[in-house]
Specification:
single chain; 141 residues; alpha+beta; Cytidine Deaminase, domain 2; 5-stranded mixed sheet; globular
Length: 141
C-alpha cells in the first residue's frame, strides 16, 4: 500500500507529539507510534512502563488500542519513532506488537521506523516482512 508524503508527515507529527508523553522512567527508552486507521484518522501512542515490567505497554499497541477503542476496525499503516544513539540496532516492533498489528492490519500494511537521532530516512517494511505466516483470526475458522 502506498502512503502519500502528506499522510506520512501527519503520522510523523502525531508520533512526535506522542513521544512527549512517554513514561519510561526505568529504561529511559522513549518510543512513540502513530496508527493510520482505515477511516483516515490518525491515533498516537507512546510506551508506558511499569515497575512490574511485564505490565509495560508498547507505543505500537497503545496507538492501535486507542484506534480500536474509538471504533476503528482496520489499521492501514504504522509509524514508529525512537530517539536513541544511532550506533544501536534499528528499533523494530517487538513480537507482541507484531501479533497485535497482524490482528488489525493487512500483511502488506507499511510499517515505518525512524530514529530521530539518526540522519537516515525512515525504514519501511511491510507487516508480512516482520511477521511472515502470522496467526490471525482466519486461523480460527
Amino acid at each position: 500500500m502506498k502512503i502519500s508524503k502528506t499522510i506520512l508527515n501527519k503520522l510523523l507529527k502525531k508520533a512526535k507529539e506522542s513521544l512527549k508523553n512517554s513514561y519510561s522512567p526505568y529504561s529511559q527508552y522513549r518510543v512513540a507510534a502513530a496508527a493510520l486507521a482505515k477511516s483516515g484518522k490518525i491515533y498516537g501512542g507512546t510506551n508506558i512502563e511499569n515497575a512490574s515490567y511485564g505490565l509495560t505497554m508498547c507505543a505500537e499497541r497503545c496507538a492501535i488500542f486507542k484506534a480500536i477503542s474509538e471504533g476503528e476496525k482496520e489499521i492501514l499503516a504504522l509509524y514508529i519513532i525512537v530517539s536513541q544513539d544511532p550506533k544501536l540496532p534499528e528499533a523494530t516492533p517487538c513480537g507482541a506488537c507484531r501479533q497485535v498489528i497482524a490482528e488489525f492490519a493487512r500483511p502488506d500494511a507499511p510499517i515505518y521506523t525512524l530514529n530521530l537521532q539518526d540522519k537516515k530516512p525512515p525504514v519501511m517494511r511491510m507487516l508480512k516482512e516482520y511477521l511472515p505466516n502470522a496467526f490471525t483470526p482466519k486461523n480460527l475458522e
